DNA sequence: CCTACCGATCGGTAGG
DNA sequence: CCTACCGATCGGTAGG
């Protein structure tokens, strides 16, 4: 049969990207040499430069491609016509499922986008902002009062903090499953945000009574200012 | 008056560490040259090597010193004899107050500890674990059932996610104050964790009724397994 | 405490 | 005369 030049091309390209993501995640973009990437991918350095014009092109391909995956995931969740809370739950499940198999790319995105040229950096940041805005909008639908960006975006960033920080401690083969993390975070966030305005002392049955927060210190009011 | 050699020594050393933390945060440890650090600190490269034996010693001084600050902050909160919830609130206030002025060190700790030698890396990680354990213990006291590490530590990491992720988006001169972040996170976490076992459908008044989570999918049960 | 350097290794590309 | 690659080495710069 005919020589599958295309297949080999794609396979080598995939091997290079995978090796680069792994090495960038472990030693950072600046701490990884192109010779190390080529060796890890099983190709010569000139061949690596045949596929990518320079080291930065590798980084951009990793970061931009990963953002495309996250954007597709956000779009898929939105296209299902779910009710607000079901939509929110679906989003978190989708994110954690993606994170489980994308730890390297996740780390590269967090720590190495700063090495991109300003144009490429701006392109990746724009996609990040689109993902954040989509999640912020989903949060806004959970609770009608969360309509202002000043309130929704910080809550979205707090939510992303909970799940994105997993790259520092959660392991795919560890005792806590990624899908369980999605559920814990979902419940914590919904319980934390839905029942009462933030900070205002909600009536909660507790053994030790805490001093009710003064109304003037309402964080929600501060966020909305 | 006598030449204040000691003062100059400490000042130069502080200038070097500050410059190093700023550059490491911006371009990472591997992407920063010692010449850049020396220039930013206003000293010659040989003088920099008079204070620090190599580049890694700078990194260790930043990371280890910052962990000492966080440990001191945790110890100070514990020494006040506060009730569980007040103790928890005090901890978050103290962390966010520290983070507000330690953005560079915070980023260096997150992204560059991996460049430390294994001994120094282990020393920093041990201090990080001590901080996490202290916060996990404080969470355990909030709710007596959170007594097992399998439950407390993931919740502590979720909490650290919320506040540590701020280094990617929260700015000291931005519209949202760090002290307000502390309050929002405190309320979100307490509301999210205290009232009901995680995941089990709690009776909440909502417009749109969501499907109650099946009992078998209780995240708390999974965490505790 | 500076100028002047070193062994090595960097990212990227030459000839064939 | 293409493409897809290799072994070898380029000019500059890193940490020290």
Describe the protein.
Two copies of one chain form a homodimer. With 225 residues, chain A is mainly α. Chain A has a domain at 54-194 and 219-223: Orthogonal Bundle (Tetracycline Repressor, domain 2). Chain A has helices at 5-27, 34-41, 45-51, 55-78, 84-100, 103-112, 118-142, 149-164, 178-193, 219-224. The termini of chain A are far apart. At the A-B interface, helix 5, helix 8, helix 9 and helix 10 of A face helix 5, helix 8, helix 9 and helix 10 of B. The structure holds a DNA duplex (16 and 16 nucleotides).
Supply the helix-strand structural class of chain A. mainly alpha
**Biggest sheet features of chain A:** none
CATH homologous superfamily identity of the domain at 54-194 and 219-223 in chain A: Tetracycline Repressor, domain 2
From the structure provided, what is the oligomeric state, counting identical versus distinct chains? homodimer
Q: What fold name goes in the CATH topology slot of the domain at 54-194 and 219-223 in chain A?
A: Tetracycline Repressor, domain 2
The total count of strands of chain A amounts to 0
CATH class of the domain at 54-194 and 219-223 in chain A equals Mainly Alpha
Unreliable runs of chain A: 1-5, 199-218
In sequence order, what are the helices and strands of chain A, one letter per element? HHHHHHHHHH
Let me know the average pLDDT of chain A.
85
Helix content of chain A: 55-70%
